[in-house]
Q: What sequence folds into this?
């Protein structure tokens, strides 16, 4: 392992003599060394104060890197030419909490050196530019702000409307640059993003996907966008009387009609006023014959009588 360590150290130092470009931003989150890179990473090296001697895992191991660390240096490299793909993620788990790292040497394709920056992960100035007659103050801080260029003594052109968002109390000549306040959600990733807003009113609503049909069994009234996941219960058997083509889950409600006529009917064993009636077995899985009603009349009469055979046990 020591020989690999020396070899990789020498290799990475050689990479460091080649061309530079801003490529990799690193941040420390707990024990994770996270990265954002615009180039593939073929090897890396950094100094530490002993906090990362047990470094392992991360995208480096996923890429097949060998990781070797001493009490002051860590490096990751591949003997097969594999690399950590450009993008973002956890480069390596430091194995301990490091307050800072230094001495970064990162190698790109063909041995090109990658410029590396360790960020504190804090917020940066959200203002990209100021309006007419203004300039940015403290641009390296989240507390940055725009200031008017006007000199209090000489005055200047600007917006004289006190209700405008760019009102300039130091201006003495209105230049027609006034911009009214437009309140709304300024986060373009939100459901109700307002591209015209210039003042965020904390009204942003995130996208919520799900079923928006109140007739579905998984209807969610908090959903904003239907994602086609609605589920409907009902009879899913096309042969049933109450088949529901929109149903996706069978709820056991299918019903079937029994409209078949009796077949194979004949009479046998006639003895005086008694006889045996015979017919085909018409019972099915969906329909059971539980009663027969026979109407008859004596020869020479016009009056009909009825005999019932069996007892009804249902409606099918």
A:
């Amino acid at each position: 392992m020591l020989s690999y360590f020396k070899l990789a150290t020498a290799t990475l130092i050689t990479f460091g003599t080649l061309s530079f470009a801003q490529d990799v931003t690193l941040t420390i989150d707990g024990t994770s060394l996270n990265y954002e890179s615009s180039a593939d990473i073929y090897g890396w090296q950094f100094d530490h104060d002993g906090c990362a001697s047990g470094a392992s895992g991360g995208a480096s191991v996923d890429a097949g890197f060998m990781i070797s660390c001493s009490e002051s240096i860590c490096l990751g490299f591949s003997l097969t030419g594999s690399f950590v793909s450009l993008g973002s993620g956890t480069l390596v788990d430091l194995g301990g909490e490091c307050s800072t790292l230094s001495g970064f040497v990162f190698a790109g394709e063909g041995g090109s050196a990658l410029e590396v920056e360790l960020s504190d992960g804090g917020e940066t100035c959200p203002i990209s530019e100021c309006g007419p007659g203004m300039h940015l103050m403290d641009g390296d801080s989240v507390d940055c702000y725009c200031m008017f260029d006007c000199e209090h003594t000489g005055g200047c052109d600007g917006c004289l409307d006190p209700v405008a968002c760019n009102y300039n109390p130091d201006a003495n000549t209105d230049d027609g640059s006034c911009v009214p306040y437009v309140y709304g959600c300024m986060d373009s990733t939100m459901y109700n993003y307002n591209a015209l807003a210039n003042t965020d009113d904390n009204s942003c609503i995130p996208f919520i996907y799900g079923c928006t049909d109140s007739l579905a069994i998984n209807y969610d009234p908090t959903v904003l966008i239907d994602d086609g996941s609605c589920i409907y219960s009902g009879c899913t058997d096309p042969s049933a009387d109450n088949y529901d083509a929109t149903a996706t889950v069978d709820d056991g409600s299918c019903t079937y009609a029994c409209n078949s006529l009796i077949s194979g009917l004949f009479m046998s064993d006639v003895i005086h006023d008694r006889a045996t009636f015979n017919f085909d077995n018409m019972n099915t899985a969906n329909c059971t014959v539980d009663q027969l009603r026979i109407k008859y009349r004596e020869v020479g009469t016009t009056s009909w009588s009825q005999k019932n055979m069996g007892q009804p046990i249902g409606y099918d």
User: Anything to note?
Assistant: Residues 1-21 have pLDDT under 50 and may be disordered. The chain is about 5% helix and 30% strand. The radius of gyration is 41 Å. Residues 2-15 form the longest helix (14 residues).
